[in-house]
Structure formats: C-alpha cells, structure tokens
C-alpha cells in the first residue's frame, strides 16, 4: 500500500470518490480485528478476576482506579475529538499496552502458576494488541494522518521503583486495571474505525 | 506493631515482590498529596501462616487533610464482611483484627483481606497465604522408551493438598560421579511427572529423587536407584491384523510386527494379547506369547465381533535380568468369527445339522464325508461309519472339556489339529481313530 492513498479529513464527504480498494480492505480488516479483540478482552477480564478470588469479580467490586504510567483511560472528551486525533490516540494506547500486559503476565505467573490458560491469554493479548496497533499505524500512514515525529518510549524499568513496594493485593488490583484499560482501548479503537469503514456510520 | 502469629513450625516467607517494569504505581496504602482522599496500610503485608494458626492485623488510616479516623472502618476476607467482634479500634486511626484457627487459603494467589472505609470503598488490602508445608513425595516410578529418554512419575506427600502453591523438582545424578541435574519438562504424563529427553547413560545406575518446596518449607523423597536398561518399555506392536481361520467358527488368527524401535537391540520380546466381545467390557488375556508374532485365538463364539489388542515387554535387553515394562496396548483391531453354517473363504457352504443331537459344523462334516469317501476308495478300514463319528462327538459334548479353555488364558492355539474347539478336535480324533483301523491300499 502506498504511503498516502486517501484522506481522513472527510472520508465520506464525496460519495463519488471512494477509497482505493486495498486501503478499504485494510480498514475493514483492521476494524474486524478490533472487533474480535474487544470480545477477547472481555473474556480475559472475566478470566482474570476468577483467578484473583473474591471480591474480584463480585458485583459492586470497585477497587481504586490506580494510575498506570504511560497510559490512561479514554477521556470523556475523546468522542468529541476529530477522527484523525482519536485514531492517533488509539494507536498510542495500543502501543503502550503490550509491555503492561507482559508485566501482568509475569506477576500472574508467580501468583497463579497453575493457571496456564490465563497466562497464555495474557501473552496472546500482548501479541494481538501489538498486531492491531501496527495495522492501525499502517492505515494512519496511508491516510496521511500518522503521528508526527517518533513516539515517546515507555518509561524505563528503573522508574518503576515505587512498584517494588507494592504487595500482592495491589498487584492484583493493578492487573485488573491493565486488563480493563486493554478492553476500553480496543473497544474505543473498534468504534473509531467503524467511522472509516465504507458504508459504516459517518 | 502487631503481626501474625504463625504456628511453631511456620516461617513467614516474605519475599520482596519482583519488579513490575513500566508500572509506576500509586501504591495502595501510600498517601497521595493533595488528593483529599484517605488511604490506609495493612500490616502484615502478605503473611504466610500455618493452617489453624492465628493472625492479628491492623489497618492504619492516613490521608489528606489529616485527622483520618478509624471509626466506621471494617474488614472483609475474600469478599465476606467479618464480624464486628473480631475487630477493635486501637487508636484514632487504627483498626485491629484478630482471626483464629485459620483455614487453608481458598485460592493460590492468596486470600484477600481488605480494609474498607465506612462507605465501602477499599482503602488497603493484604493477601494471606494459609497452608501446610509439603510432605515427602513418594512412590517414584520411572521408565525409558526405547532407551532414549526417561520419564518419572511420583505421588505428592500423604495428604496432597497444602493449600499453597508447591513446586516439585525431579533431580537425578549418576550414582558414583557427576553433578545433580534437574528435570525440566514437567507434567508430561500427569500433574506429577517429568521427562528427561536425552543424554542418558546406560549400564550405570542413576539416583533419582523429588524435592517439594512451598512458602512454608520443603521436603525430599527417598532416593530411587535404577539402571535405564532395567526400566525399558517400547511402542505397542504395529500392524496388528486379525483374520478368520478359513471357515472355523470359533477361531481368529492374530498377527503383528515386532516393535521396530528395538530391532537393533538384543532383547527377547514377550507379548500379551487381550480380546473381548464387541459389546462387553470384560477382556480375556492370553499370556506367555513369547518371541512370536502370531497367535490363534480359539474357543470363540461364532458370528461374533471381537476386539483384539497386543502389547510387548522387551525383557532381557542387553542381558538385563529384569523384566521390562509393558508397552501400551495397540489400537483395537476388530474381526468377526464366521456364523454357524456361514461359508468361510474356500470352504463349501454349511449344511444344517441332521436329526437330534448337537448342532453340527457343516464344513467339518462335509470334509469328513469326503475323507471317508477317499478312505473307502483307497484303504480298507473296519468299523468305518459316520455313526461312529457322531457317537464320538456326543461323548465329547458331555465331557465339556474344551468349552472354556481359551477364556482362562491357556495360550495360543497351535494349528487346527490342536485347537480347543470341539469341531477340530473331533475331526482330529476321528481321523486318528479311523487311521488305526485302516490299511491304505496301494
């Protein structure tokens, strides 16, 4: 696919000018992947809470929403942003998720060593969100809407000193937070991409 | 500061948690400046305790603005609110908890002890690990597939459940020299098993043992000493074929091939055959099938489908004096015996039995008739008649000598003349009886 094959400014303004077929196919494919990962993310969240024990997973369980370095939840104002900006924020979040999911998997390997399915699904999630992020970056580049300049690197390991003081319960809560962020961002990406899919909502 | 009181043998194993890279955490329990929110710290954090022991814990509240109070705080354990009488206010900002006679942890990741504010919000949490130290693993058994590897299985300590994650490590070393090695491929044939895939020595004994470790301690099994050559097993015999024996209603022929993996090694093979009727769960076993690759099953029911399996024991490998280990059974092979009166390959069609007496074997009677005809033509025999043959068969039926022979694992039938079936035995006996009274005319 060439670097710029369409425009995100108003993709559906002129109905007589359709996106090139391969770009259109890429957008559909990326949207489908986001849709699939949204379902997987929901399943991962359910599986995660089961292995942490009650009160995780109980109705009404509301742990503190701990901040996570390099990633926050989609802001309430996200939906009001222009589509290019939304997609760039989606791509940035998807790029930040794999190392976070890897960290959760490593911790769960100690806490729940006899939960191979959970560990495998955490590993799969990191790999799949990496693929979705790469696909979205490709679409953005083709539309000329990629982020300008290099993306900032995730915080280095040394800066995680505060995390070494965390006990098991905070680690469980943090893992829940990361799984929740994963679900929120793939769902947000699916929604934003749906506006690019030809024939989808404007 | 109050702390948990584990039982006399317990060690509170408080390992520092590993790094969680890339996660700058606003730790639960650390004050957040300017947030206007209260947080708390639970002590002890993540204690390890023996089943039946007691725990004393505290939840200390602090926050911004200062002056956070312990009033209204409460505890939950695994999501269930604890009775108020278990708690008491130590001071303005600290709520204490006393738990006695603790049960084993509900999940491996630890029981969730949580301190809540009056409105139910979570202020802090700590995970309890309550369990037992591991008991000595025992009953180690090992086998080598074709002398190429070693798989071992063991039983965890007598009570099994420790309520804590217990790590099992299989260790092995050459008896008289060499360093300890640790098996790396676990759970290959069940939860307590390990597989060593290569680099094993023959003709020299190994020492093998299992170490079990959890947060409360460790235990080691007794040492098992063995030579790889004494615990060899192999693959099930391939190419098992089961076929009819001509038109014989009560026999099936079983043939197989010696396991190819051991074809270059000096050993003697023993085989076992088992068979059952299609709709039965009871297997009959034929033992003592030594160093041969075929066997005839006799005394079977006519017109019946049988499933047959074969397995191999490679004993005496390289002169080992110990029996090997039986292979798995081959995949079941099915075949059916001819129905009574059904034509077998090359046999004349059966005829119904005549008159009273037991049902006759059509092909056998026909063959006997032909034999008698030949004798009359080519020999001089006294007392030669079909009546004599029928009298002999009736006598055999009454004695019931051959009815149940094969079901009791009497080994393979050796050719048609020596089978246990009444039809072929009578044929042989009848032929012998006549021959003694005949003189063949040249």
From TrEMBL, chain A:
Gene Ontology MF: a single term: cytokine activity
Similarity field: Belongs to the IL-6 superfamily.
Functional description taken from the UniProt entry: Induces cardiac myocyte hypertrophy in vitro. Binds to and activates the ILST/gp130 receptor.
Key words, A-Z: Cytokine, Secreted
Source organism, top-level taxon: Eukaryota
Gene3D superfamilies, A to Z: 1.20.1250.10
Gene coding for it: CTF1
Protein name: Cardiotrophin-1
Subcellular localization(s) per the UniProt record: Secreted
PANTHER family: CARDIOTROPHIN-1 (PTHR21353:SF2), PTHR21353
Main location: secreted
GO cellular component, as recorded: extracellular space
SUPFAM superfamilies the record matches: 4-helical cytokines (SSF47266)
Gene Ontology annotations of biological process type: cell surface receptor signaling pathway; neuron development
UniProtKB/TrEMBL annotation, chain B:
Keyword Chaperone on entry: no
Superkingdom field: Eukaryota
Species per Swiss-Prot/TrEMBL record: Microcebus murinus (Gray mouse lemur)
Record-stated family: Belongs to the type I cytokine receptor family. Type 3 subfamily.
GO process annotations (BP): negative regulation of neuron apoptotic process
Region Disordered, residue ranges: 331-364, 401-426
UniProt domain Ig-like: residue ranges: 31-121
GO molecular function annotations of the record: cytokine binding; cytokine receptor activity
InterPro entries registered for this protein in UniProt: FN3_dom, FN3_sf, Growth/epo_recpt_lig-bind, Ig-like_dom, Ig-like_dom_sf, Ig-like_fold, Type-I_Cytokine_Rcpt
Name of the protein described by the UniProt record: Cytokine receptor-like factor 1
Subcellular location: Secreted
PANTHER family named in the record: CYTOKINE RECEPTOR, CYTOKINE RECEPTOR-LIKE FACTOR 1
Comp. bias regions, Low complexity: 407-426
SUPFAM superfamilies registered for this protein in UniProt: Fibronectin type III, Immunoglobulin
Gene name for this UniProt entry: CRLF1
This protein's GO CC annotations: CRLF-CLCF1 complex; external side of plasma membrane; receptor complex
Annotated signal peptide: 1-36
The entry's keywords: Disulfide bond, Glycoprotein, Immunoglobulin domain, Phosphoprotein, Receptor, Repeat, Secreted, Signal
Domain Fibronectin type-III as annotated: residue spans: 136-231, 236-340
Transcription regulation recorded as keyword: no
């Amino acid at each position: 696919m060439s670097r710029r094959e369409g425009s995100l400014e108003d993709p559906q303004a002129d109905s007589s000018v359709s996106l090139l077929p391969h770009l259109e196919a890429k957008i559909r494919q990326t949207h489908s992947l986001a849709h699939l990962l949204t379902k997987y993310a929901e399943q991962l969240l359910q599986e995660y809470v089961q292995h942490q024990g009650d009160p995780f997973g109980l109705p009404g369980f509301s742990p503190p929403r701990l901040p996570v370095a390099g990633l926050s939840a989609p802001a309430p104002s996200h939906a009001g942003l222009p589509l290019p900006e939304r997609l760039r924020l989606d791509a940035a979040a998807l790029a930040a998720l794999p190392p976070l999911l890897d960290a959760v998997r490593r911790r769960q390997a100690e806490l729940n060593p006899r939960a191979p399915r959970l560990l495998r699904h955490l590993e799969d999630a990191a790999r799949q969100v990496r693929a979705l992020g790469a696909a979205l970056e490709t679409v953005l580049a083709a539309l000329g809407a990629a982020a300008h300049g290099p993306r900032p690197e995730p915080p280095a390991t040394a800066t995680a000193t505060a995390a070494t003081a965390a006990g098991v319960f905070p680690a469980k809560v943090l893992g829940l937070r990361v799984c929740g962020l994963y679900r929120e961002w793939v769902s947000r990406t699916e929604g934003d991409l749906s506006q690019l899919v030809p024939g989808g909502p404007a | 500061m109050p702390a948990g009181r584990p039982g006399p043998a317990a060690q509170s194993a408080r390992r520092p948690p590993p790094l969680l890279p890339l996660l700058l955490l606003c730790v639960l329990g650390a004050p957040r400046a300017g947030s206007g929110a209260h947080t708390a710290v639970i002590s002890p954090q993540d204690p390890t305790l023996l089943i039946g022991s007691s725990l004393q814990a505290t939840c200390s509240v602090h926050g911004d603005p200062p002056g956070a109070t312990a009033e209204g705080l409460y505890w939950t354990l695994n999501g269930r609110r604890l009775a108020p009488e278990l708690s008491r206010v130590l001071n303005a900002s600290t709520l204490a908890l006393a738990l006695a006679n603790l049960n084993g942890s509900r999940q491996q990741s630890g029981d969730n002890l949580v301190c809540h504010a009056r409105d139910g919000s979570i202020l802090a949490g700590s995970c309890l690990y309550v369990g037992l130290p591991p008991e000595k693993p025992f009953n180690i058994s090992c086998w080598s597939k074709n002398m190429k590897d070693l798989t071992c299985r063991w039983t965890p300590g007598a009570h099994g459940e420790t309520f804590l994650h217990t790590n099992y490590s299989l260790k092995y070393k050459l008896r008289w020299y060499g360093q300890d090695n640790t098996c790396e491929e676990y759970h290959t044939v069940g939860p307590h098993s390990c597989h060593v895939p290569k680099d094993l020595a023959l003709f020299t004994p190994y020492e093998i043992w299992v170490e079990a470790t959890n947060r409360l301690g460790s235990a080691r099994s007794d040492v098992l000493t063995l030579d790889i050559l004494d615990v060899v097993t192999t693959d099930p015999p391939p190419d098992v074929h089961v076929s009819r024996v001509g038109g014989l209603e009560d026999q099936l022929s079983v043939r197989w091939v010696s396991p190819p993996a051991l074809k270059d090694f000096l050993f003697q093979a023993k085989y076992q055959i088992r068979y059952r009727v299609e709709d039965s769960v009871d297997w009959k076993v034929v033992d003592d099938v030594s160093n041969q690759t075929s066997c005839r099953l006799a005394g079977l029911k006519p017109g019946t489908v049988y499933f047959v399996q074969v397995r191999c024991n490679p004993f005496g490998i390289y002169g080992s004096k110990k029996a090997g280990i039986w292979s798995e059974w081959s995949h079941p092979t099915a075949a059916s015996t001819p129905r009574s009166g059904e034509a077998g390959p090359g046999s004349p069609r059966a005829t119904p039995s005549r008159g009273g007496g037991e049902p006759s074997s059509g092909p056998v009677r026909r063959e006997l008739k032909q034999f008698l005809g030949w004798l009359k033509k080519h020999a001089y025999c006294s007392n030669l008649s079909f009546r004599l043959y029928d009298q002999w068969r009736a006598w055999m039926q009454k004695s019931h000598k051959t009815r149940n022979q094969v079901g009791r694992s009497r080994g393979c039938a050796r050719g048609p003349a020596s089978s246990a079936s009444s039809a072929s035995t009578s044929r042989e006996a009848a032929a012998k009886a006549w021959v003694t009274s005949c003189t063949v005319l040249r």
